[in-house]
Amino acid sequence: MKKEYYLIVENTHLKGRRSEVFFKMIPFSLIEQKKVTNNLVIVLPGAGYTTQAPLLRFTTGVFYNKGFDVLHINYTFNRQELSELSEEVFARDVQLVIRNAIKSKKYSNYYIVAKSIGTIALSHLLNDTMFKDAKVVWLTPLLQRDVVFNAMVNSDHKGLCIIGDEDSCFIAERFERLKDNPNLICKIVDGGNHSLELDVDPIKSIDILKSVIVDISEF
Question: What average pLDDT does the segment 122-128 reach?
């Protein structure tokens, strides 16, 4: 059963010497099993790569069929919001949505799957005691962001990282450093772009999609 909601969060934006308060609506949906479960997967999409895009849509199906409830955080950003994005405020807003969404639930087994900009929020969520035993999936993480890279290098959480070597966020030296973390399984997609697809080969892109979903299912 899929239920859709939204949370309105209050943010402050500095404009010159003035401080402006504005409100942002963050939609989210909770796909629940027919019977109560203690398993939850939280899906944090990219800025333009939504929870309905192939990687996350099939990931949702995998976890639902394994007996997990699925929480989609469906934030959106316009170009100006992205250029002014505060990592801390974004992570705080995601945390608020999660706590609001599951306040009446009693989950104990968590997975968090994050794509692109969602890996910023994931980096902060790892410090939340609620998720101290969560397993995490980093899809095309923003390795150029120190908060993401440092979280991945130092994390004690069991993790799976998948990124393409043609992704603009791929940094070879940082990817090699990630391999030093024994808790992190690192996989690279040859020729993969930021959607984990091949720019000129849609058929092989389907094979890559299947391989990534299998990796996530087996993690």
Answer: 95
| Bridge partners (DSSP) listed for residue 139 | 115, 162
Q: Quick one: pLDDT at residue 109?
A: 97
Structure tokens at 156: 């004690």
164 exposure class (CB count in 10 Å sphere: 0-12, 13-18, 19+): buried
Q: Do residues 110 and 42 touch, judged by C-beta distance below 8 A?
A: yes
- C-alpha angle 91/102/145, rounded to 5°? 20
Residue 117 pLDDT > 80, yes or no?
yes
Q: Which two tokens stand for residue 136?
A: 């995490």
Q: What backbone phi and psi angles, to 5 degrees, belong to 214?
A: -65, -45
Over residues 102-117, mean pLDDT: 95
Contacts of 211 (CB under 8 A, 6+ apart): none
- What's the confidence (pLDDT) of residue 76? 85
Q: Which two tokens stand for residue 211?
A: 């391989």
Is the sign of the CA dihedral 141, 145, 148, 151 positive or negative?
positive
Closest CA relative to residue 134, chosen from 41, 202, 66, 63? 41
